[in-house]
Design goal:
Layout (H helix, E strand, L loop, with lengths): L1 H12 L3 H4 L1 H20 L2 H33 L6 H24 L7 H30 L2
Helix pairs in contact: 3-4, 3-6, 4-5, 5-6
């Protein structure tokens, strides 16, 4: 019982965003990794894994962004370093990941057409770059620089 009370206390004292932020980072990074493997191996199953990861990344970005905005208000009075840049970049990340997932869902052969394959893989790359910058800016908030 004491352990449960300690966990509940820790969740109420520490920013929830710090826990959630790892999901979009990991999902976007693994999506990019799997789309590169799918290109290398010419594998449909690896492309489907990449698609699943980018879809989950879009959903987790929404939850993480909401937690980040709420934690910014609660712990930094809305003035966390780089908060405006992070909101803009997270919005762009959501737009790209969600658009990629929706278009791929509606057009399953996207990966097999030469004309769209480059744009499709590029969307994964841009998403990976965005989440990397967001992670860096988050580190600036947590650790300072």
């Amino acid at each position: 019982m004491v352990l449960i009370q300690q966990i509940i206390h820790a969740l109420s004292v520490h920013p929830f965003h710090l826990l959630l932020v790892h999901f979009p980072i990991a999902l976007t990074s693994s999506a990019f990794f799997f789309i590169l493997l799918a290109l290398l191996k010419k594998s449909d199953i690896l492309e489907k894994v990449a698609f699943a990861n980018i879809s989950l990344a879009a959903v987790s970005t929404i939850v993480t962004a909401i937690a980040g905005i709420l934690d910014n208000q609660k712990y930094y009075n809305g003035l966390a370093p780089n908060h405006a840049a992070k909101i803009i970049l997270a919005s762009i990340l959501l737009l790209i990941t969600a658009t990629t997932a929706i278009i791929r869902w509606r057009k399953p052969d996207l990966f097999h057409k030469k004309g769209t394959r480059i744009l499709y893989v590029l969307a994964y790359f841009v998403s990976f770059c965005l989440v990397s910058v967001l992670g860096f800016l988050g580190g600036v908030i947590v650790y300072g620089m």
